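Notebook entry, structure prediction.
Reason for the run: the old model in the group folder had no record of what sequence produced it. Starting over properly, with the input documented here first.
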Amino acid sequence: MGVKSKTLVLCLGNPLMGDDGAGVAVARMLKKLGLPPSVDLLEGEIDGLYFLGLAEGYDKIIVVDAAEMNLEPGTWKAFDAAPELLKGNSGLSTHQFGLGEALRLAEKLKLPLPPIKVYGIQPQSIRFTGKMQLTGAVARAVRSVAEVLHKELTASQLAGSFPLSRETKRVPD
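New structure, fully documented this time:
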């Protein structure tokens, strides 16, 4: 019997800050849908430096987060993570030391990282709400991303593969 690969699904965001909670909402939907035993699911606010420590021991990583991509609110993109695509705080993170900075640091320090796929959801409103409160477009995108991820994780469990496709989806109203 072959060695099973281990996947980390890291869903980022602050559920008290409107659409910034999109990643956390995806995590909660994935928990309800159920995931294969080879998948670890983490949610919350995680700094890029902490991410580098988390990456150790995983064969694949999926990151889900609200991402400023200058698209229509509720549009989501899936793509392979690369430092040049994640340009610091100017895009794809609402966090201080984000994934882009962590990838650049890992590259400079020659730290080995597994393949990383990012699911970014374009927010409409990031402001303090005091509770999980997503706008309609982002809530629809959260459902879509959770369903796609669940299918991908279940299929990769069966096939042992990790599709690193690029796609953009606009969830209709």
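Summary: Residues 89-94 have pLDDT under 50 and may be disordered.
The old model has been moved to the deprecated folder.
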